[in-house]
Amino acid sequence: MGPTMEKFVSTLQEWLTADDIIQNIEGCLGCGNCSQACAWYLGTGDERLRPNFRSDFIRKIYRRYLSPEGKVLGKLGIYSTPTTLDLKREMDVFWKCTACGRCSLACPRGINNRRLTRIGRAAYTDSGFSKDNLTVRNIIENTASSNHSFGHSVMEVFAKVGLMLRYEDVEIPIDVYGAEYLFVCPAAGNTKIPELGIKIPKILNAAGISYTMTSGIVDTGTDVDHIAVNMELTRRLLVKMEEEAQRLGVQKIFVAECGCDVRTFYVEATEILGRPFRFPIVHIDTVIYEAIMNGQLPVEPIDQSVTFHDPCYVTRLSGLGEQYRDFMNLLVKDFREMTPNREYNYCCNAGSGGLAVAENADIYRKISVIKAEQIKNTGAELVTSPCAICYVSLKNITEYYGIATDGERKAMMFFEIIYEAVKKALLDKGEYHRVKTPLLHKDRDELFLERHSLNGFLRKLQESPEYSELLQRLAVNPNVINYAGENPGFDEYLQLQIGESGVSQATGQAAS
Ligand code: SF4
Ligand code: SF4
User: Fold this and answer.
1) For tag attachment on the chain, is the N or C end more exposed, with fewer CB atoms within 10 Å?
2) How far apart are CA 247 and CA 172, in angstroms?
3) Tens digit of each residue's pLDDT (9 = 90 or more) over 391-410
4) Residue 73 CB contacts under 8 Å (≥ 6 apart), including other chains
5) pTM for the full model?
6) pLDDT at 406
7) Same-domain pairing of 380 and 414
8) How many CB atoms lie within 10 A of CB 372?
9) Percentage of the chain lying above the pLDDT 70 cut
10) Residues 414 and 305 both lie in one domain
């Protein structure tokens, strides 16, 4: 066995538990039922995309190199001997799976194919093969160098959403010691969905919830955990989250609307850290739901008909599906279930690299017809989901399959539905101003606000020599262009900021 195969095998050995060996390795009957539950197989008919194809490949390696009888039977040629060429040949199928777990529902033995795929990815990453996949390589390199899977800095993340929040005169608490909750937005959210950084703070402010953002970290490790499955870097980010929570003296940590984060923090953190995560984890929607039920936050159900897509990692894999039915009925007058729903719902086909891996583009489109049909059949005006990647996928699917036409928006994040219902109620009561000021900014002096507010943070940023260039970059950022399209006046505001930053930089240079 050469060194790369040795590394691959040692990762399997590290993560396969005794239960995995009894159930997931030795328990398969080879019946193929699992294939009938998987969109990747159903949509393509490709034999290599059957759930048990990947699992059988891991079994072969286990049996040859790790089972007690493997050494003898392998030498006798009774067990086949996988080579590094075999590893290379089969690597692509490990990223043509969203680790959604739907196949386990159809399996008479409950075999966990998603877990074998995940451990297989970890082995490909540890042995260096996965760097041939550009998406995986970028995630690993970006996270290693900047603690953000897209390689964005704290300055970049805060400046983008910060300018939009400042334009709307909305504040957020930054680095406030002693808050109840710490809120860190995952990289996919702060890179692709600026609404997450705008509407969530507005809801939390209006509800009077004690939370703080941190200037210490702007990613939760979602991509490195689920797409790259680099356990070492995931551990590093989990520990960094704990350190930030400790530094700020918070009591709990929010999980945002990100299916992968839900799974990481509720389930996988313990295995990766080898101990329980040090802070209680609470889903942000649970806290908002409680605020509504306690009368802290008013809502008025919206008029449009809405259907709900269950994120696999939230409903099937973390058991939070039922709470969303109760929540939907509070927010929407006409809630329509898609079929099938809850744990039997089909995957959005985007998570864990389904969409992010460029080579999957054609297959992703093809297999997404299943989700498109589910949405169409409800006849609902909108589809929503509490997961950033599901949302990106639903937006793609509704546009590609003609459900949304003429730039009409058919997909929304779940928090956007909450926001619409809250906004309606606050406007009715004449209390919309409540979205602007966080609880932890109330009755504070100027010095405190300068140190712990967005305005203070942006003022400090303006002194940075890179600020002017950063604004120029933001002006051509698709999120910013989109926001400007929806908020007439923002473009002018941004140009003014760019002009002022140029003047202040020139003044600074002249003075120096
Ligand atoms: S985990 Fe999901 S995507 Fe992967 S094989 Fe099973 S059903 Fe298919
Ligand atoms: S359904 Fe279960 S037992 Fe049958 S092939 Fe799939 S994983 Fe194996």
Assistant:
1) C
2) 18
3) 999 999 999 999 998 888 99
4) 79
5) 0.94
6) 80
7) yes
8) 17
9) 98
10) yes
Q: Is 49 in the pocket of ligand 1 (CB under 6 A)?
A: no
SS3 string of 129-159?
HHHHCHHHHHHHHHHHHHCCCCCCCHHHHHH
CA-wise closest residue to 392 among 198, 195, 141: 195
Q: Which two tokens stand for residue 343?
A: 């744990």
Q: Do 98 and 159 sit in the same domain of this protein?
A: no
| Amino acid 405: pLDDT | 86
Q: From the CB of 497, is ligand 1 less than 6 Å away?
A: no
Give, for ligand 2, the residue of 107, 114, 116 to mutate: max count of ligand atoms closer than 8 Å to Cβ. Answer: 107
Distance (Å) from CA 24 to ligand 2 centroid? 9
* Contact between 454 and 172 (Cβ < 8 Å): yes
Ligand 1 atom with least separation from CA of 101 = 1
Count of domains observed in the chain: 3
Q: In the β-sheet with 252-255, what is the strand arrangement from edge to edge?
A: 211-212, 181-182, 252-255, 281-283
Q: Is the CB of 345 under 6 A from ligand 1?
A: no
> Which residues are bridge partners to 336 per DSSP?
307
pLDDT band at 60 (very low <50, low <70, confident <90, very high): very high
Q: What is the DSSP letter of 133?
A: S
CA distances to 35, 56, 96, 117 from 53, in Å: 10, 5, 12, 10
315 and 415 housed in the same domain: yes
